[in-house]
Amino acid sequence: MGKVQLFEIRLGDSRVVYSPGEPLAGTVTVRLSGSLQYRAIKVSCIGSCGVSNKINDTAWTVEEQYFNSTLSLADKGVLTAGEHNFPFQFLLPASAPTSFEGPFGKVLHQVKAVIDTPRFSKDYKCNKIFYVLCPLNLNDIPDIEQPNTMSITKKFNYKLVKSGNIILTATSDLKGYIVGQAIQLRTDIENKSGRDTGAVVASLLQKVAYKSKRWIYDLRTIAEVEGSGVKAWKHAEWKEQILVPALPQSILQGCSLIHIDYYIQVSLKSPEVSVTLPIYIGNIAVNRVPLSPSRSIQHIPSVVVPSAPPEEEEAASGYHPMDNISIPTKSHSQQQPFSYAPGLSFQEIRADSEQTGSPNHPTLCLSTGATVPYYAEGNVVPVPTASSLILPPEYSTWGYPYEAPPSYEQSCSSANSSISNGN
């Protein structure tokens, strides 16, 4: 850098995570081996979002800016040899969205500094990225503490002339979770046929929608657990849990270009049938209220009223009583949830403004990546899956004609009609 030996931005108390509405203070440090003439020394605080049509491309096709403030630290003059420190302070707007970084776009907050030198001389620039987290309090979402249930009935044919029904019902204990929390999942499968089913698979899915010239959907499996199939004429119950790994929160409040949704998908491989439960991932855990026996997840009745075995089967084999059995789990496929931030503990975050902005609470650093936080260490990759709904890791076929799962509101509004139609 010639005369400039050091030109950097240091944030107060070495902080990197801030809350909307907080002051951001720091120092611009310049160390020179000789005198340097300058026209101005300025520092800017910028928050913006950019989206691209190509993966990992920073040539944004669509952008939006949230704030851009500039301070003049020194006017025209000469800096002598040695070290010079210029303090600054900005007030982050209350509307600043949470930081996010994904393959097709990012919400980026940074401080930039520049030494503007006379004509024909080289300007000097540096920048410092910081992260904003607007915690999502799950308790602000209506009915978040209620169990989440979806059921579907599918009629299928086998052995050319025979037919049967599968009733698949999935229930989660809540509609929202935080990182490190276990999703308690119960699945009921009524196999009203003379054919064994394939394996049952429960997956935690992440859908990130990027608004470019058209919507780009990045859909991937975060965690997956597989259970055994169900024998003919059996009513099986499968209880499992999925531990929520490090994930960005569901809602980027204030950002109109990137939308994040999560789903629990339970599916049978044969016959092909699945149900999808929309859920939220937040930062402040649900305040659990003890459920009465009538509301307990163990006593939730099936949404679909069971029907008698198909007439074809009844005529051929007579009536078949439905035996109740439990499904064993075959395999788990999940990221190491505690490998991304050494020493991080998953204590519940209190809705305390002082704690929210404190650097001593690293739990607030969990929303800075597409599937893992910015602070991830090692090779943490999405769990591979054979499901046709999940795009491959290279994203070579992203976007149209693939369709992402519906939004939370769409799922809730269409649930009753789907169940009543038996599809």
From TrEMBL:
A molecular function GO annotation: ubiquitin protein ligase binding
Residues of the Arrestin C-terminal-like domain: 162-286
Recorded superkingdom: Eukaryota
Classification via Pfam families: Arrestin_C, Arrestin_N
Gene Ontology biological process terms in this record: protein transport
A single cellular component GO annotation: cytoplasm
Family: Belongs to the arrestin family.
Name by which UniProt lists this protein: ARRD1 protein
Organism whose genome encodes this protein: Vireo altiloquus
